[in-house]
Amino acid sequence: MAVSLRAQLARLRVDLTPWRGSRDFRILLVSGSVFFLGGMVGYVALPYQLYQLTGSNFAVGAMGLVTIAPLVVFGLYGGALADHVERRTLLVSTGLAQVVISALMVTNTLLPHPQIWLIYLCGALNAVASSLQRPSREALLPRVVRHQEIPAAVALSSLTGQIGQLAGPALGGVLVGTVGVTWAFSVELTGIVFATLLYTRLGSYRTGDHSTAPSLRAIGGGIVYAFRRKDLLATYLVDMVGMFLAMPIVLFPAFATEILKEPKLLGLLYSAEAIGAMCASLTSGWAKHVHHQGRAVVIATMCWGAAVGIAGLAPNIWFAIAFFAVAGAADMVSVLFRSVIWNQTIPDEMRGRLAGIEMLGYSLGPLGGQARSGLVADLTTVRTAIVSGGVLCVAGVVATSVWLREFWRYDARTDEHAVRERDLRAAG
């Protein structure tokens, strides 16, 4: 019995095999962690600086409007570019661009009168550079680990991202509150420099001889490929339904202050989902034994919606924090298996374009969800907005999975695309 329990616990432990076996995976993981940590420090400093300079909440929110167009345009173009050029070169060149942009942000803080227009310009340029870089970084992951190690690699990458999501804002808040935004942006700059230097140590990962040059036709080819594959289409739609209908973050200030009467604990609401996601990542060893990954995505997203809805009924803030943590864990499971499906089934010559499409879905769903939550809360109540979002999420995910029933039947052992990629990796 003791041996059996020990074996069961071992199945939960995060799998470190990709870390031990792949030098380039270690480089990607460390560089991405440092880059994300610094970026989250800047994520706190930028709106703080804007608000200090303008005193306007709209001026802070306008940064999101400034970055939408670059995200859409260059996210799709960056995906097509990643399928054509050498990916290490693209990572390094976009990293250098981000170094320059971050240095401008630091310099601007040192001026007697920091320029607001320059902050918006740097925000837009950074969105361009990030949109060009991210598809290449994500498309590299399946190239640096073995096919069967992809679930563990995705879980480790997510875990380090969650650590940055927790530690970065905390560090940023301390820095802007004690030594000022110059130091915060300097930390972000240091992280970008370090990550870019690490990217230069990667091996060369060239695309195939018959890769398609970036163009509208190439981008359209990626979109057509995604729509023709119902399993891929379902991964995008299930996530967008979940995020659009049950994204509660914009309501946290009102929920903590007006409903739960605990404004001092507002920060814990923001941290709850990341804590839950981290717990899910740390116990993700079981994921490599799951083959019906579509079902896992559907069930996890339904659990996300249900947990958010229950949190909306919370009688006190600790109840809400607990269920938002459950929601974060469920979302992490959904992210894990969606990423595994993408990385185990998409051909290398298409990975960049599909990563660009995924980035848009991942970004636009939450943006739309926050607008929906705010509108419903203004028309009804904060509780109604959160609870109705959770209920609608569950219903919407069920409807989507019924419509795209192939997703529910997806099996990584027999799916033609997964088998093809597994055989290609084995032959290579």
TrEMBL record:
Gene3D superfamilies: MFS general substrate transporter like domains. Coiled coil: none annotated. InterPro entries: MFS_dom (IPR020846), MFS_trans_sf (IPR036259), TM_effector (IPR010290). It comes from the Bacteria. CDD domains: MFS_MefA_like (cd06173). The keyword Transmembrane helix applies. The keyword Nuclease does not apply. Pfam families: MFS_3 (PF05977). Keywords: Cell membrane, Membrane, Transmembrane, Transmembrane helix, Transport. Residues 223-428 form the Major facilitator superfamily (MFS) profile domain. GO terms for molecular function: transmembrane transporter activity. The chain crosses the membrane at residues 27-46, 58-78, 90-110, 181-200, 236-256, 268-287, 317-342, 385-404. It is a multi-pass membrane protein. It is found in: Cell inner membrane. One of its GO terms (cellular component) is plasma membrane. This is Putative MFS family arabinose efflux permease.
